[in-house]
Amino acid sequence: MNARVLSELVAAELVKLGLEATGTDERGQRYTRWCSRQPGFGTRSYAGGRSVYVVQTKMQGRLRTVTLCDVRLITITKARAIARRVLLRAQVGENPASSRTERRAVPMFRRFLDEYWNAVSPGWKPSTLRSNRNYRRHLERAFPHAYLDQIGSGDVQRWFAKITEAAGPAAANRAFELLRALFVKAEEWGILPESASPCRGIMRNKLRKHECRLSALELEHFGVALVNAEANHPMAAAAIRLIALTGCRKSEILNLTWNEVRGRRLLLTDAKTGPRTVWLGRAGEAILASLEPHTTLDEVFWYNDQPLSISRLDYVYRSCRDAAGLNHVRMHDLRHSFASHAASMSETLPMIAKLMGHANTAMTARYAHLDDADVLEVCERIGAVISRAMVAQHDG
């Protein structure tokens, strides 16, 4: 430890009072009056009339003296307290310069965002990459001048509230998940200590659950609209019908290739949760049998010599939906309906999870909701059983 380190300690204490260190001693005659109550602390007066507080201690065998500040800035009581803290910190070997060097070894947030992105994004699916590019914009402007370890929970909460107001609760949740994953990776890479993520303990926005299961009558109306659309949009109509019959995600159907079609099975190699098998009923098998493969494309669904795009699929779906008077129904609700109808047929959650390609049954439970008619029917059956039992015992 040397005089520069002692100066750093002084500067750190003065910052707490909103003061700056005064620098080196003035040249010329000087006189120092040492404090009897606090060894190492004194008042130094110069020939020009200026007086300053000083701290003196031995470092590495040499006596070091550092100026605190001008005596007009703070009282001697405050100066003495600062001197006491500086001397104590010096005695235990604290070095502010080393602490600052360690802090600067941690990258700035914006730089680490680039490092994280370059390392992790190559492993994402194309759809995930496209989605995360949109949410990354919210992160790029989040903490422009902060080092990674300077970002606290309060900073994240303020940012989260701002994004929620600007982009909506759902988009804010997705951006927050991206930020949380970034800090988790910083811990894994040893850039931040374990459990240092400022995202810990922050709750995501609660979203209104969109529960929509198409009734038999609604499915009938939607089916009529699909039949009418088949003349001008045969491929898109067939893809939508297959989504409804299998409960597949639209990305899984759009990316389906003939190599993945094996009789009554679809061997999806690039599904959301990894490779999985989708079993086809007779109706689904008939749809694929009716399609004409492209001469050069391997994709099952195509349009104008190109793989069928998600925008075209959405366009045809919205046309059919509106024609059927189902403006509130999203395409993803066809998947909901598949799971819900399976549940109403008393299929187990593990079975429905396998049909849906879910990694666990917790997600399936969200999809497999029952409507009031299903619940009422079960109540009637249970009530009838109990009633018969009670009557039988009474008769006995």
Q: What order do the helices and strands come in, and which of them pair?
A:
Layout: H1 3-15, E1 30-34, E2 41-46, E3 51-59, E4 62-70, H2 76-91, H3 96-105, H4 109-120, H5 126-140, H6 153-167, H7 169-188, H8 216-229, H9 234-246, H10 250-254, E5 261-262, E6 265-268, E7 276-279, H11 282-290, E8 302-303, E9 306-307, H12 310-323, H13 332-344, H14 349-356, H15 361-367, H16 372-395
Antiparallel strand pairs: 1-2, 2-3, 3-4, 5-6, 6-7, 8-9
Helix pairs in contact: 1-2, 5-7, 6-7, 8-9, 8-12, 9-11, 9-12, 9-13, 13-14, 14-15
Spatial extent as radius of gyration:
35 Å
Note the gap between the termini: 97 Å
Helix content: 40-55%
Q: Helices and strands: which structural class?
A: alpha+beta
Hey, roughly how much beta strand do the residues contain? 5-15%
CATH topology category name of the largest domain: hpI Integrase, Chain A
Q: Mind telling me which CATH architecture of the largest domain this is? A: Orthogonal Bundle
- How many domains? The number is 3
Shape: elongated
Low-confidence stretches: 17-26
Largest sheet, strands/sense/barrel: 4 strands, antiparallel
The CATH class designation of the largest domain is Mainly Alpha
**DSSP helix count?**
16
- Mean pLDDT over all positions: 78
> Please, what is the CATH homologous superfamily of the largest domain?
Intergrase catalytic core
Trace the largest sheet across and list its strands: 1-2-3-4
